[in-house]
C-alpha cells in the first residue's frame, strides 16, 4: 500500500468514527443534521474540491460533481445520515478500487520482471558490473550461475543449463555449450558462461518482448471499443434521466421532495467506472497470463479472435514437424547405418548430416567418389559400398527393394548385392498429435495442413495426426490462395488461425485472422510478422491459447453483464423508491471492485501443456 | 512520429478515457492512446509540432484530472 493510500485509509477511519458519533449524539432537528457535517467533509472534502475545480474547467458531467450534487442534495432535503454515509461509502469504494487496481498493476508488472539490471563486462581491469544498455556489441560478458542473461549473444566458453521458463513457460532447462546462441531473459542454471554480445540491449530479446507486451494493450478488442462508446453516452443519459425523474412526476402527481430524492440516487450511479476499468483489465490480465505460458498475444483484439476460432491451418515443416531431418528407420543388415554414415561422412548435405547424427563416429572411408544426384561410391575397409537413390541402384544393376515408409530413402549395395535401406524423414513433434486432438476437443470445426512437401509425405503426416484436410506440393503463393479459400468457407463471425514457423510464410500469417508463429528462441522475423507468438515452439500451445482466450472473454463478458445488470436494477428500483442511495453506492463502486477482482482471474491461467 | 509519456496520478479509468478523447481533438494530433493500466500516453503527431502540442496535451489532461501530470521521458 502506498503512503497516499494509507493516509486515505486513516482519513476514512476518522470519518467513520465521526459518523458513528454523530449518530449517537442526542441532537435533534437542524442540529442533528449539522452533526453529520464533520463526518461528511472529512470523508469527502477532496470530492468537493475536485468538483469545484472541474466546474471551473467546464466539466459538468464529472463524477465528483455529480457526487457532490447527490450528497449535497440529500443534506438539503434534510437527510444528514444518508448524505454522510453515501459520501463515506463512496470514498471507501474508491479506496478499494484504487487498491485493487494498484495490486493488479503490480502483479502484471511482476510477470514482466525479466528485465536484467546488470551485466558483468570483461574489461582490461577485470570484470566490471555495468548497466546492460552500456554494453557494446562484440564485447564479452560473464554470466554466473543464478544470473539472468542480460544480453543476447554467443557462448565463447563454458556450458550450462538455461532456465527459459520466464520466456517460454517451459520448465525443462535448455543445455547450452560453446558456439550456442543464448538469449536474454533466461536464467543461467549451471556453470559460468563467457558470452560475446551480438545485439545491443534495446534490440535484445528481452527488451523487445517487454515492449511488445506493453504495447499489446493498445490494440483494443471490439468489446473494449464498444464499452468506450457506451461510456461516452452513459453519463449524459443517466443525468438526463435524473432530471426528467425530478421534473415530470412532480408536475404530474406532486410530492417534489420525494422525486428529487430519487433523482439524486441516479446521480450516484452515473459513472461507468466498473465497465471502463474492468474490461481492459480483463484483457490485460489475459495477455499477462498467456505470456506466463510462453504465448505472446499482441492485442486484446486477437484474444477476441482466438476465442472464436473455427478453422486452424498448420504449416507442416517446422510447425508440426521438427524441421530437421533424422533417421527414421533402418531396414537391412546390422552394420547398415555405420556403413552409410562412413560413406557419406565427407558430405555436408542435410541427408548426410542426419546419418552422421545417428552414427557420430563413422570409420573413415579409404576412398570416396561422389556421383552427382545419385549418391556415392565409397571404399570402406576394403569393401566397395554404393549408397544412394534408386537410380544409382539401377545403374549398378542392383534391384532395390521399395519401402512402405515415406521420406528420403538411401539404398545401400555391395558388390552387386543389395544390403538394405535407410529411411530419413522430418520427424513429427512429440506433442503434435495431442495438439490436434486438443483442438478437436475444444470444438474447432476444421484442421488443415498446408505443405510444399511431396504428396505422400504430407498425407502420411496428416493421417497420423488426424488432420481433416491436407493440401500438398504448394508453392508459397498457393498457400495464400488456399488460406483465402478457407477464409471464405468459415461461418460468419468465426476466425481462422494460421500456424507457421515464421520463415517465408509472412504473407499467410498476415492474411489469416490470427497469424500464429513458432517464435523459436529469438527469431525476430517471426515475432514481428505474427499476431501471436509461441515462444516454446509447441503446436499444443495453440489449444492453450484458444482456451485462455475463451476464458478471458468469459470473464470480460461476466463483468459487462454484471455491471450493466446491477446498474440497471438499481436505476429501476431507485425510480420506484425501492433502492436507496446506499444501494446506488454499491452499484457504483462496489460493482467496480468486484469486477476488478474478477478480472484478475484472467491473469492466473494455469493451463497445462498437453 | 510516435512518443510515449508517463502519466502520473492518473486515478480514474473514466478520466483516462475522457483524456484520450480530449487529446484526440487537439489539432495536429494524429492519434492518441491513454492507457489507464500502464499509466501511459502514446501520442502520434508530426515531430516539429511536438513541443507546442505537449503544452496543449498537458492542459487538456489537467482539465479532466487536476492532479495529473504528463512526464516527458
Question: What descriptive keywords fit this protein?
Answer:
heterodimer; A: 610 residues; alpha+beta; Calcium-transporting ATPase, cytoplasmic transduction domain A; Calcium-transporting ATPase, cytoplasmic domain N; 6-stranded antiparallel β-sheet; 22 helices; B: 73 residues; Alpha-Beta Plaits; 4-stranded antiparallel β-sheet; 4 strands; 37% helix; globular
What does this structure look like?
- The complex is a heterodimer of chains A (610) and B (73).
- Among the domains of chain A are: 1-111, no CATH class; 119-200, Calcium-transporting ATPase, cytoplasmic transduction domain A, CATH 2.70.150.10; 323-427, Calcium-transporting ATPase, cytoplasmic domain N, CATH 3.40.1110.10.
- In chain A, α1 (3-24) packs antiparallel against α5 and α10 (273-292) runs antiparallel to α21 (540-575).
- Chain A has 610 residues and is α+β, with helices and mostly antiparallel strands.
- The relative contact order of chain A is 0.11.
- By secondary structure, chain B is an alpha+beta fold.
- Chain B has helices at 13-24, 50-64, and strands at 2-8, 31-35, 40-44, 69-71.
- The chains are: A alpha+beta (610), B alpha+beta (73).
- The interface between A and B is medium-sized, with 27 and 18 residues.
